[in-house]
Specification:
Elements: E1 2-4, H1 20-38, H2 41-44, E2 50-52, H3 59-71, H4 76-79, H5 84-90, E3 92-94, H6 101-108, E4 116-117, H7 127-134, H8 141-155
Parallel strand pairs: 1-2, 2-3, 3-4
Length: 162
């Protein structure tokens, strides 16, 4: 199990005079996922379960563009025989900074709720906004329970209380 959290590339530290967490972290998350995809790492390392924070960063918003580009790549089937969305649906994502209807529903458009789990960025992020935000995302009681706890327990069964 590998948890991936972004950082700021050297090129972009303080680039726009705003906190790097606002723009660079979501970009870096998407860059990391695409790097692992296009390098063939996801295909070669099927036994590794990856968890990416922040709902995959900007990746859900780029889905159409990535699908358009990969449809034109002659060797993409060797990297992802079942396609881009199938690869994204194998990964896991947390809700840190993504627990709002726009971000979470973009993620849910490309992955099933079974791949999404609670995350808060604690101690840097606050937990209450994530808990409250999930209530605004139009999730069913089953989806909410899975995201809040069930998916993490399925991924890491030893966390279950005896």
């Amino acid at each position: 199990l590998v948890y991936v959290h972004p950082t700021v590339p050297f090129c972009c530290e303080g680039l726009l005079g705003i906190s790097s967490s606002m723009i660079e972290y979501p970009q870096d998350t998407a860059r990391a996922i695409l790097s692992l995809l296009f390098s063939g790492t996801f295909r070669r390392c099927r036994d590794i379960r990856f968890v990416f924070c922040h709902g995959g960063g900007v990746l859900p918003a780029l889905t159409g563009r990535i699908e358009w580009g990969t449809a034109r790549m002659k060797d993409f089937a060797a990297i992802a025989p079942d396609g881009y969305r199938a690869e994204m649906a194998r990964l896991h994502y947390d809700t840190a900074t993504a627990a709002n209807p726009i971000t979470l529903n973009a993620l849910r458009a490309i992955v099933p709720h079974t791949q999404i789990m609670f995350g808060s960025d604690y101690p840097y992020g606050r937990i209450r906004p994530i808990v409250d935000g999930l209530q605004t995302c139009g999730l069913s009681a089953e989806e909410l329970a899975a995201i809040q706890q069930g998916n993490a327990l399925r991924l890491v069964p030893r966390l279950r209380k005896p």
